C-alpha cells in the first residue's frame, strides 16, 4: 500500500538524532523541515501548514512543553504534536498530554514506529476536519470536492479544488508555494511550473464568479485569499 506523503517538522537539537529522523522520513517521500531550537520551531509551525510536528522536550533555548503550548496557540491549524523524549516517567507523559501533546514516544525509538504514529496522527486530523468549510462567500463541500461562491457552483478542476481547500483552511494566513506543491504532488512534483498554471486558472475562475480579485500573490511568501469575512 502506497504511503501518503506528509509534511513534518522535526524539532530536535541533537544533530545525530535529527539527521536519522530526517533521512528516514525523507526516504518515504515526505517533506521535512528541521528546527534545532524552540524559537525556530514556533516560527516555522506558525508559517507552514505541517501535518505533524515531532517535538523533543530538551531544547537549548525553550522547554519543549512551552514550545508545544505555543504551537497549539499560534499555528494556523491544529497540527498534531508527537513528543519524542527521554523523559519516560508517567508524570512526564501526563504533563506532556496536559500541555497539548497528541502522542508521546520515549527515546530510544524505532524509526518505523515514528512513521506509523505520524500517519495515524495525520489521519486523525483529517477525520476531525469539517466536511463543509465556509470562508466568507466561499463554501467548500469537502467530501464532494465541490466549491460554491455565494451558493453558486464554481467550475473547478480537482487540482483547483485542492488548492482552494488549502487556501481556505489556512485563511487569513498565506500559503507558500512549497506547501502547495507538497499538498498537491508530495515528493514528486511535475517538472514544469504546473502550480503557476493551476493558480492562474483558479484566479480567473474566482474573478469571473465574484468580479473581484480574490486570490492574492504575496511576494516571497506565496498566495492568500483576499476575502471580506
State the shape.
elongated
What is the terminal-to-terminal distance?
41 Å
Which fold does the CATH topology of the largest domain refer to?
Rossmann fold
What is the number of independent domains? 2
Strand order of the largest sheet: 2-1-3-4-5
> What is the arithmetic mean of pLDDT?
87
Oligomer: single chain
Strand content: 15-25%
Helix percent band:
40-55%
Q: What is the C-level CATH assignment of the largest domain?
A: Alpha Beta
Order of helices and strands: EHEHEHEHEHEEEEHHHEE
CATH H level of the largest domain: which superfamily?
Response regulator
For the CA atoms, what is the radius of gyration? 19 Å
Count of distinct strands:
11
Features:
single chain; 229 residues; alpha/beta; Rossmann fold; five-stranded parallel beta sheet; 8 helices; 43% helix; elongated
What does this protein structure show overall?
The protein is of the alpha/beta class. Helix 2 (38-47) packs parallel to helix 3 and helix 6 (158-170) packs across helix 8 (194-210). The strands form three sheets. Strands 2-1-3-4-5 form a five-stranded parallel sheet, with helices on both faces. The chain has a four-stranded antiparallel sheet with strand order 6-7-8-9, with helices on one face. Strands 10-11 form a two-stranded antiparallel sheet. It is elongated and about 60 Å long. It starts with 6 loop residues before the first strand and ends with a strand. The chain folds into two domains: 7-127, Rossmann fold; 132-225, Orthogonal Bundle (Arc Repressor Mutant, subunit A), CATH 1.10.10.10. The protein has eight helices and eleven strands. Helices cover 43% and strands 20% of the residues. It has helices spanning 15-26, 38-47, 64-74, 90-98, 111-127, 158-170, 177-185, 194-210; strands at 7-11, 31-35, 52-55, 81-85, 103-106, 132-135, 138-141, 146-149, 152-153, 215-218, 222-225.
Amino acid at each position: 500500500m502506497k504511503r501518503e506523503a506528509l509534511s513534518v517538522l522535526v524539532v530536535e537539537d541533537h544533530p545525530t538524532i535529527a539527521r536519522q529522523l530526517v533521512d528516514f522520513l525523507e526516504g518515504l517521500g515526505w517533506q521535512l523541515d528541521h528546527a534545532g531550537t524552540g524559537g525556530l520551531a514556533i516560527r516555522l509551525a506558525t508559517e507552514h501548514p505541517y501535518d505533524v510536528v515531532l517535538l523533543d522536550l530538551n531544547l537549548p533555548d525553550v522547554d519543549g512543553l512551552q514550545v508545544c503550548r505555543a504551537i497549539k496557540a499560534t499555528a494556523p491549524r491544529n497540527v498534531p504534536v508527537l513528543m519524542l523524549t527521554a523523559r519516560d516517567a508517567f508524570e512526564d507523559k501526563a504533563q506532556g498530554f496536559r500541555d497539548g501533546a497528541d502522542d508521546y514516544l520515549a527515546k530510544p525509538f524505532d524509526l518505523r514506529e515514528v512513521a506509523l504514529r505520524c500517519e495515524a496522527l495525520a489521519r486523525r486530523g483529517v477525520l476531525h476536519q469539517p466536511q463543509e468549510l465556509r470562508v466568507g462567500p466561499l463554501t467548500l463541500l469537502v467530501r464532494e470536492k465541490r466549491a460554491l461562491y455565494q451558493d453558486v457552483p464554481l467550475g473547478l478542476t480537482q487540482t483547483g479544488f485542492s488548492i482552494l481547500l488549502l487556501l481556505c483552511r489556512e485563511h487569513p494566513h498565506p500559503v507558500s508555494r512549497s506547501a502547495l506543491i507538497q499538498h498537491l504532488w508530495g515528493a514528486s512534483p511535475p517538472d514544469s511550473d504546473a502550480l503557476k498554471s493551476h493558480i492562474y486558472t483558479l484566479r480567473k475562475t474566482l474573478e469571473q464568479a465574484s468580479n473581484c480579485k480574490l486570490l492574492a500573490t504575496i511576494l516571497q511568501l506565496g498566495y492568500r485569499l483576499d476575502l471580506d469575512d
